[in-house]
Hints:
Helix content is 37%, strand content 24%. It contains 10 helices and 12 strands. A hairpin with a 2-residue loop joins strand 5 (90-94) and strand 6. Helix 1 crosses helix 9 (245-260), helix 5 packs across helix 6 and helix 5 crosses helix 9 (245-260). The model has no long low-confidence stretch (mean pLDDT 96). Bound molecules: NADPH dihydro-nicotinamide-adenine-dinucleotide phosphate (NDP). Residues 104, 129-134, 153-155, 158, 194-199, 202, 204, 220-222, 244, 247-248, 251 line the site of NADPH dihydro-nicotinamide-adenine-dinucleotide phosphate.
Amino acid sequence: MTDRYAVIGNPIDHSKSPLIHGLFAKAADQDMQYSTLLGETSPGGFARAVDAFRAEGGSGMNVTVPFKTDAFAYATELSPDAQLAGAVNALKFEDGRVLGQNFDGIGLVRDVQLNLGLPIAGRRVLVLGAGGATRGALLPLARAGANTIVIANRTSEKARALAQDFTPHAKGVTVQGCGLDALDDQVFDIVFNATSASLGAEMPVISPSVFAPGALAYDLVYGKGLTPFLRLARDAGRSRVVDGVGMLVEQAAEAFEWWRGVRPDTREVITRLTVPLV
Ligand code: NDP
């Protein structure tokens, strides 16, 4: 029987997940169907939609904006990454159990280390933003052995609170939180833009001096070309600039392997979805 999966979000039409999982399934010869599900944002809307999908025999789901915290509450068992992120982006339904995972941070780290060939171990890492994507990235970045992680956010208290919450899980990595205006003379080997500023063609206000020579400037947003953040890094003249398409495909590959027990090849799918950074 064909196994059924879906991505739930609101809005959902823009989602690349059906295309990505369709390509994975074809290449890995998997008998599965993957669709989109528009969730209702009214109270209880997420749970009703997921209950109905499970009742129809659904095997698993991806979860996107704005339902990642609803999925966290819905899951009956959570992975450590999901627990720390306070958010779930993939669900698996098994004999009445609902397993919740958050693969966003793992996808990010795999993209940097495997696709871009840059080991994170020993690097000074700056993460701009203190929302869900940053929460999901912290544990995988610490696991990968970052030297230091600085979280800088427009609302500085959020960055400080997140750094404090995360410190007991940081595996010896120094973690600090501050405002965007408090980076002083600090310099970083990897700068992630995990704010949603690029979605509105805006930019977190930072100095180009944060980029060390040869630094990686990585905008988590994808499909937007050269965002203002990436332009700042490029104009600084010494950074490699990359967007989040690889992260998107790698987190999907993690979910696919979790559901199907088969590791899909990501390179061709990333190439297909890449929008030139111009
Ligand atoms: P959230 O809404 O949880 O957090 C948004 C963050 O952006 C907050 O820290 C907010 O600061 C900050 N922010 C928003 N606008 C500005 C601005 N103009 N200047 C400075 N800071 C700003 O979003 P997420 O964490 O879920 O997502 C962040 C980004 O990551 C999005 O672009 C999203 O598309 C991308 N993403 C990419 C994925 C991928 O697979 N490639 C996966 C997940 C996310 P404040 O607290 O002050 O409001």
